[in-house]
UniProtKB/TrEMBL annotation:
InterPro entries: AB_hydrolase_fold, DUF1350. It holds the Pfam family DUF1350. It comes from the Eukaryota. Gene3D superfamilies: alpha/beta hydrolase. This is Uncharacterized protein.
Amino acid sequence: WRRVGGSFVLEPPQGVRSKAIVHFLGGAFVGAAPHLSYKYMLEEMSSKGLVVVTTPFELEFNYVDVCAKLLRRSEEAVEEVRGKFPSLPVHAVGHSCGALLQMILSTMFAEEWKRDSLVLVSWNNKPAKDSIPQVRGDLIERIADGTNEFTPYPPDLNDFLQSSYSIRKTLIVSFSDDTLDESDIVEVRKRR
């Protein structure tokens, strides 16, 4: 792994042809160190010819602010990798909260966040009390300004994404035993 700007980049091993660029965003809390939290999966992707860019983020209640920071933090790495591999497609891959952020970036920041496809793994957009119940008391109630919900509010964000979603190539991955997964909501949008 090598650090480029606010991201980490892993190129395929010597002798393995590069096939595509993957920009990966992890889940809510493990997304702060995706190159470590998802190490084995990302290194396996790289060994198969994918150039991996992953950008850490800290979860905040304002998803638009998180996305704006992700855009700035990832810009240098994505530009460098695109410059080195100009003919390769760039695929956005996200897990859980990272999948939601990829979707927001691909709609609200579409001009700057150009990706050839989206891979959404265990996508969810639940209210804060439902998505982070195990830390609700510790995290939410410590917020000095009284913020206790994500913005845009999940139902409002769902409506926006439904009306703005235009990504032609989308792969939705879900697991039967994942209680936070709401991928079925994305599947319905994708068909419209």
